[in-house]
Amino acid sequence: MPFESLSEKLQMSLRRITGRGRLNENDIDEMMKEVRLSLLEADVNYKVVKMFVNEVKEKALGEKIMKSLTPGDQVVKIVHDELKKLMGDEEAKINYASSGLSTIMLVGLQGGGKTTHCGKLASYLRKKDAKRPLLIAGDIYRPAAIDQLCQVGKQLGIEVYQEGTNKKVVDIVENGIKYAKKMNNDLVIIDTAGRLHIDEALMNELDQIEKKIHPNEILLTIDAMMGQDAINVITTFNEKLPITGCILTKMDGDTRGGAALSVRYLTNIPIKFIGVGEKLDQIEVFHPDRMADRILGMGDVVSLIEKATENIDEDEAMKIMEKIQKGTYNYNDFLKQLKWLKRMGSMKSLLSMIPGLGSKLKDLDIDDKQFTNIEVIISSMTPKERKNPDLVAKSPSRRNRICKGSGRSYQEVNALTRKFDDMKNSLKQMAGMDPEKMGPNARPPMPTQKARKGKGKGRGDFRIR
Length: 465
What we know:
single chain; eight-stranded mixed β-sheet; alpha/beta; Rossmann fold; 434 Repressor (Amino-terminal Domain); Four Helix Bundle (Hemerythrin (Met), subunit A); 9% strand
């Protein structure tokens, strides 16, 4: 989860004042010391920290807040609003041409994920904005850069225009744009050369491309783990090129998040996207308000719903619900749901979007490989067994064969069949609940006798190792 360490420390600082009936200046001072330290440890620029702390303190000490019935909650809201403002207040949208072909140029240092994010961005905009993208291979210096982009394009089904490494980059880009117009593409994304450090030759080449094609967007890819060095890189690029936005990559890694909280305030350049994983669909629009929610442990239900909408087929989901109600839910349905979950991202990142769960996930061991183990076990069943789970549940010999075929232990296969049975019964009871007859204090249905017997024996979760 992005900002995991910062999120935990900020929440701890704020927890000490929430719920209090009264606050005084000393309480606010103590809290702000901890907030200041949390931000500095997260590698947020010291100028940004100073401004943020002063703004929050000034508003928190306002007479209206201090005399409020819930001053602690009011201070949390101030911190939330200031975090949101710090990161840009609202989503920064992509600038497209008013008509015809739009061009986006990605720039950045080597190793920042620029080439991969050309593909990610093209795929995202094709899906979200119904664009017909073409990728142009403009990095003729890094070994295998063109091959990498072609491989990314092949995986996504997006064409890549390239002319090898023997032509000038400006000519390749110009020819690529002519080709895009001829092929009726409405979006071009240009991969450019990166360097291990900023040098004059690189900047001059990028400047020539910019002057020649006048792109609608120049997006700078920045490794989120760079910390405060990211600001120096952004500033240097922005002095030579009219940077219109940033893509922060590796936001799923062990990043302290300082760059994201410093970029907008220090450079006035918006963060437009964040890379949240290695897969080619793991890119997200940067929403300052949602990120502020996640940092303060308020979850991000909107993003969770969007992920579900994008990855779950509504008609298929309804069919599965009908099967649950009829008691015909089987391993094929379960496997389908597992694949939906995997497409949505890691389980830990999904759970972190649920309000109140974020801070509780830090030490929780959630191994996504267990889903793969379950898939392997189910794939080792016959079509008849997947359709009729009772065949496996009632036959040790079938479980023994599945165990050998999947390479998993007999205990794991046994555990899956028992837990599947419990889950199937629980889902059926939940599906049978009538929302109209449920009051505000209604409780979910009691577990089955079988589920109650399994309590305390590890049968309540789906952990397959």
